[in-house]
């Protein structure tokens, strides 16, 4: 591999011979006493970053020049761990957003500036898997840097993981989380039930509401087939349908998203299925 750019003693870029895309290569002392165009010692390579978007790649290179190498390694380790645990591919922007976030989070802690995560309770409840990864991450950071972060920070890390897995911006993800929590409250108080948050039924409900909330946030529409049994649903599942109407009112009032009859019926049917499961558990 020949050096395309030298970012610092530990990070260089090369051009992939197959894709012709620029790759960022990291390794201790990788470019020490080296010049552009020279071959690198491939035994020193610790990590290869392939960011296909040229603008994102440039931002990533700029960030690398501003942060300690250890922070980049920690960020990459967290991302790899999250990919393995969730079995998903992430938006490659996470290499920039999470690394940048961790850098400033560490600076804030060193200056004893504590930022409260106002969505922590919702994140713990709605995105439990991502939150568990956040807890793993703050434990890993403490082991690597001897810096103790709190649960609020685990929540922030979880939000970055959520962003990258649903390919959304941070504001949209926060909005999405609030919508899911608000709808859960509507369902909870309408039916006067307490959710068993460790049950498969609750997991099904959360999964459906996440997809529903994403459509609300992005103003996307799903073309459901015409449901000829709309009157049957209204008659046989009156409670579920009336609850769905309350959700419709909330969404249209506060999030400017129109819910048509087919989506309303689909939501009613899903509520019926989930609530029936709760009764059987």
From TrEMBL:
Domain of life: Bacteria
Transmembrane segments: none
Pfam families given in the database record: CAT_RBD, PRD
GO MF term (any one): RNA binding
Domain PRD: 66-171, 172-281
PROSITE patterns per UniProt: PRD_2
Record's keyword terms, sorted: Repeat
Entry's Gene Ontology BP terms: regulation of DNA-templated transcription
Protein name, entry field: Transcription antiterminator LicT
Source lineage: Bacteria, Bacillati, Bacillota, Clostridia, Eubacteriales
């Amino acid at each position: 591999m020949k050096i395309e750019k030298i970012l610092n003693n530990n990070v260089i870029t090369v051009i992939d011979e197959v894709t012709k895309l620029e790759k960022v290569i990291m390794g201790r002392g990788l470019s020490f006493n080296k010049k552009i165009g020279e071959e690198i010692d491939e035994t020193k390579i610790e990590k290869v970053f392939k960011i296909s978007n040229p603008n994102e790649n440039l931002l990533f290179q700029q960030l690398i020049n501003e942060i300690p190498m250890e922070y980049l390694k920690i960020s990459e380790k967290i991302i790899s761990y999250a990919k393995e645990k969730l079995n998903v591919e992430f938006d490659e922007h996470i290499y920039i957003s999470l690394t940048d976030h961790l850098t400033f989070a560490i600076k804030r802690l060193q200056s004893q500036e504590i930022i409260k995560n106002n969505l922590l309770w919702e994140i713990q409840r709605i995105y439990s898997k991502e939150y568990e990864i956040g807890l793993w991450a703050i434990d890993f950071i403490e082991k690597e840097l001897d810096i103790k972060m709190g649960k609020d920070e685990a929540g922030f890390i979880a939000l970055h993981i959520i962003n990258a897995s649903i390919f959304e911006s941070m504001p949209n993800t926060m909005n999405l989380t609030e919508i899911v929590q608000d709808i859960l409250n509507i369902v909870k108080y309408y039916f006067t039930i307490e959710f068993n948050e460790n049950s498969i039924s609750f997991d099904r409900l959360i999964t459906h509401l996440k997809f529903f909330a994403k459509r609300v946030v992005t103003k996307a529409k799903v073309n459901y087939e015409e449901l000829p049994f709309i009157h049957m649903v209204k008659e046989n599942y009156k409670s579920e349908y009336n609850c769905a109407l309350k959700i419709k009112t909330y969404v249209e009032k506060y999030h400017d998203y129109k819910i048509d009859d087919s989506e309303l019926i689909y939501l009613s049917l899903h509520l019926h299925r989930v609530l029936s499961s709760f009764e059987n558990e």
